[in-house]
Design brief:
This protein is an alpha/beta fold. The protein folds into two domains: about 5-195 and about 360-370, 3-Layer(aba) Sandwich (Rossmann fold), CATH 3.40.50.2020; about 200-355 and about 380-400, Rossmann fold (3-Layer(aba) Sandwich), CATH 3.40.50.2020. Helix content is about 30%, strand content about 20%. It contains eleven helices and 14 strands. Helix 6 links the parallel strand 8 and strand 9. Helix 2 (about 30-45) crosses helix 9 (about 355-370) and helix 5 (about 200-210) runs parallel beside helix 11 (about 380-390).
Length: about 400
């Protein structure tokens, strides 16, 4: 199943309103690529709709709308819209994990934190001031998504974040691989969509490794903890592989860096001796837990270990991954480009980036047309297509 039939069905639908894409500086690189794909989609097969007044501004050179957020010397800031957004279908793209951006305050240089990025997002919504036809927020990494439940006397930041945006008037909230998508219960009448990247993981893996045998006798998909089990089961069932999981035994009497430390990883699954193993999770934070999982898999006889995580944060740097790779604890790490990636990763032999820009552009295009996204949400057919291409001619993977 190619992308063309998916986009052709949009030709029969009117857009909800002229599209406007506001890309915050935190997501500038991803936003440029997404904008390119949307332009490409709409230039391709829309010769009829170009003359229809209902499709005013439908085909453009760019859909990006500038929204700078300058700061005062005190560190305070504001959002400015140089052009009108009245009546537009506004999509705001923000990456709250981009730590590379800085600002000046009282002569000092500060790095922008997730809190700073979230405040800038709210400033842009406030500058729109209800003039847009509707506002959708695209936040690939869910801000405060890990603080999704209350244990004792502590804040419930994830719920507060979503409620605040809904109160400001957003219509749609789009995220990827949410740590716990049940956070949408905070605003049950607001559209909340959580997308997963299994197709992009598989495509990148098959492009990187040309000697994989994808079946239940050669591949095992592993969940590093009980929270990631659902995505591992889906991935394993679609590619026809076996599955297993690790259970994280924690010391709940201690709190280290905001969480209970892991005492041990207990493996639950069948024998993996001689098998290739794919470990799937939502994020690599410091990486300690993931590397311990990979080490145990190799000690249990795994032939190769491939780590697939949606967000590669690498909060403690890359040195421990370099050392683990030299020790042959894992063979490849694949992360998406939905969040900021350390530029040094480009030189690492063990790392591959799964490009999500075309997928995100497709999601935006569908939302702008109020089209059903069921085919986009569950890419089972596309996964089967790429597996068939790989099994018949492994060079065809890069052409799909």
């Amino acid at each position: 199943m190619s992308d063309k039939p998916l986009h052709e069905q949009l030709e029969r639908l009117l857009p909800a309103a002229p599209l406007g894409l506001i890309v915050l500086p935190s997501a500038a690189e991803l936003g440029r690529s997404v904008d390119h794909w949307i332009c490409d989609f709409r230039r391709a097969d829309h010769s009829i709709t170009k003359k229809d007044p209902a499709f005013r501004d439908y085909v453009r050179e760019s859909y990006q709308i500038s929204a700078p957020t300058p700061r005062f010397g005190s560190g305070e800031a504001k959002a400015v819209l140089p052009e009108s957004v009245r009546g537009k279908d506004i999509m705001i793209l923000a990456d709250v994990c981009n730590y590379s951006l800085t600002y000046r305050m009282r002569g000092f240089t500060n790095r922008m934190s997730p809190d700073d990025h979230f405040q800038d997002l709210k400033r842009v919504i406030a500058a729109i001031n209800g003039k847009a036809h509707r506002i959708s927020v695209i936040m690939p990494f869910l801000y405060e998504g890990r603080q999704h439940k209350r244990s004792g006397r502590e804040s419930l930041d994830g719920a507060m974040m979503l409620k605040e945006l809904v109160d400001m008037g957003i219509t749609n909230f789009i995220t990827f691989d949410a740590h716990d998508p049940r956070i949408q219960s905070v605003a049950p009448l607001t559209n909340f969509d959580n997308f997963l990247p299994p197709y992009q993981f598989l495509r990148t893996l098959l492009s990187s490794e040309k000697d994989l045998i994808i079946d239940k006798d050669h591949i095992t998909v592993i969940s590093p903890d009980e929270g990631a089990m659902e995505r591992a089961i889906y991935f394993a069932s679609v590619i026809g592989a076996d599955t297993g999981m690790f259970y994280k035994r924690r010391d709940y009497s201690l709190i280290v860096n905001g969480k209970n430390p892991i005492v041990a990883h207990e493996f639950l699954g069948s024998d993996i001796t001689g098998r290739d193993v794919i470990v799937i999770d939502d994020m690599i934070s410091s990486g300690g837990s993931m590397l311990d999982t990979a080490r145990q898999l190799k000690e249990r006889g795994a032939r190769r270990v491939f780590i697939c995580c949606t967000f590669g944060l690498f909060t403690d740097g890359l040195a421990r991954f370099d050392e683990a790779y030299e020790n042959r604890w894992f063979d490849r790490v694949i992360c998406t480009n939905l969040s900021y990636l350390n530029p040094a990763l480009a030189s690492r032999r063990w790392f591959s980036a799964a490009d999500m820009s075309k997928y995100l552009a497709t999601i935006i295009d569908y939302f702008n047309h109020d089209a059903s996204i069921s085919n986009v949400t569950t890419p089972t057919d596309k996964i089967h297509e790429i597996l068939d291409a790989y099994n018949s001619n492994r060079s065809l993977v890069d052409e799909i």
